[in-house]
Fold Na(+)/H(+) antiporter NhaA.
Amino acid sequence: MSDSRNLLRTQQFPAVLLLLAAALGLLLANLPTHGPIAAVLDFHIAVPGTGIDLSVAHWISDGLLAIFFFVVAMELQYELTRGDLSSFRKALQPAIAAAGGVLVPIIIYLVIAGGEATASGWPIPTATDIAFALGVLAVFGKGLPTAVRVFLLALAILDDIIGIIFIAVLFAHDLNWIYLVLAVVGVVAFGILSRMLPVKHSWLVIVAMVVVGVLVWALMLLSGIHATIAGVMLGLAIAQSPSMRARHVLEPWVNGGILPIFAFAAAFVVIPAVSPTQLSPAFFGIAIALPVGKIIGITLFGWIALRIGKKEKAPTLTIMDLVAAGTLGGIGFTVSLLLANLAFAGDAATRDQAILGVLVGSLIALVLSGIIVTSRAAWHRRVTAASS
């Protein structure tokens, strides 16, 4: 049991599991199994007396994924306070590169799919999937210098922050301020409870934290803001010591259960039986903006970032290292799939094609990153061997 949990804490295996889950969802959606599985995903489960009534698919994307964002937010908290983003100097260069990795994909998407029916999908190609990117880096990047890994991690974390802001700001609807204020009060209570650990009866505090966390999620859902933001707020509010333990406990469940289930459900779309010319501009906008936009944006803005400040403080990165980071940044996957569901929630046909665009664009970036990261790792190993 401990061996399987340790495997799920690695960077390689969860990325493979995520890819297999998405492939299985896409496959079963296009076989005779589509009807029964679609019926399950569309089945509604209500919580009596609360006004909460969600389909199974939404329980996955709004409920289970909140736990994923809780874990992400705890990692963000660590990086912002003690890690690679804990000072302005550390954060400046990856922040500039991340800005390029957001702006250029948006521009490319709007050039291709800026029409009235599809323009709302512009946030979709801005995300980077941290699990996938680090998984590829772990598999193919043996020999890469620490500077490349640190730069990529900081870049992906900043991308996560931007994606979270997009979800919170762009996809709120019918905002209920009373529920929102109560949710914020709950987050404060959660933070206070976490600072009471450890105590003699720690289990009572932990139970109270779980109850408060669930209440915050429900209040956030009812407030009109996407419920995953509850996970973000709770993850940022928790005290750092219990957050480290919570991350360690939750990580295998998130990597081995929550993310594959979400990937399966999100990728459960029917491939349209049309010619490529009949596909939605949203499909092409995302499929191109993810790999191409990220490579251009991260490389160009990263190159500019390397020339800001004193030369001796610049990270030891070359232009090709930035290209490698750009290809890894194009693996949007988890957050891009969520953004696709949110951006086209009222248009099922465009939503499905946008999801296909995420899968195709991420797959292209995955293949390119595998090739380029392998090449860069080999080059760095040769340079290290020659200098030793």
